[in-house]
DNA sequence: ATCCCGAGGG
DNA sequence: CCCTCTGGAT
């Protein structure tokens, strides 16, 4: 199957079966989403959702977070991955938001990545989810699933995957396709043992084709 | 042992 | 490009 056809099948299937796909991180405003996404690095969303209620209760606004300390923030996030780094990033992020962005989460990716703890992936999440921009955030799931399905070819870096997805996906589906890929990777196309036996989209999957297709003759 | 919505620094 | 950070689930 041609790559172009895989894209068509991909959009056709998920726009029909999951037109409301969205993040599973709990948040109620851009500031909270930014904090949650920074915390989510190398950590399950489920774990993040377990600790953010107390965190947001203590730091309901950017100002409260900026006025805190690495030690106090650490005490709220000690059960996530890399709590020391993330405590420093959150404090620095909050202080920079106030110093340079009037306490508001900026809209441009180029501004977002200036914030401590915010790399390209996090910036693209904020850009697409908060500001409805056609940005593709490539995390471990998007990277793995795109390559398995055959939506990308010879893409060895997250940036290469991002460029190909943005190029070949219909513009209006880029933001939601991020969530389609995440959710598919999280529940079906698992990293260690993909559940091909229950996967509904093997009919256009390159990985399934290569792995399970009977050889002629 | 490997993975989870990575980022920063060398 | 590489390495480090670093907790919990499977």
UniProtKB/TrEMBL annotation:
SUPFAM superfamilies given in the database record: DNA-glycosylase
InterPro entries, per database record: DNA_glycosylase, Endonuclease3_FeS-loop_motif, Endouclease-III_FeS-bd_BS, HhH-GPD_domain, HhH_base_excis_C, HhH_motif, Nth
Enzyme Commission designation: 4.2.99.18
Leading EC class: lyase
CDD domains: ENDO3c (cd00056)
A GO MF term: class I DNA-(apurinic or apyrimidinic site) endonuclease activity
Catalyzed reactions: 2'-deoxyribonucleotide-(2'-deoxyribose 5'-phosphate)-2'-deoxyribonucleotide-DNA = a 3'-end 2'-deoxyribonucleotide-(2,3-dehydro-2,3-deoxyribose 5'-phosphate)-DNA + a 5'-end 5'-phospho-2'-deoxyribonucleoside-DNA + H(+)
Recorded superkingdom: Bacteria
Co-factor(s): [4Fe-4S] cluster
The UniProt record lists the keyword Iron: yes
Listed PANTHER family: A/G-SPECIFIC ADENINE GLYCOSYLASE/ENDONUCLEASE III, ENDONUCLEASE III
NCBIfam families, sorted: nth (TIGR01083)
Protein's name according to its UniProt entry: Endonuclease III
Protein species of origin: Sphingobacterium bambusae
Gene behind the chain: nth
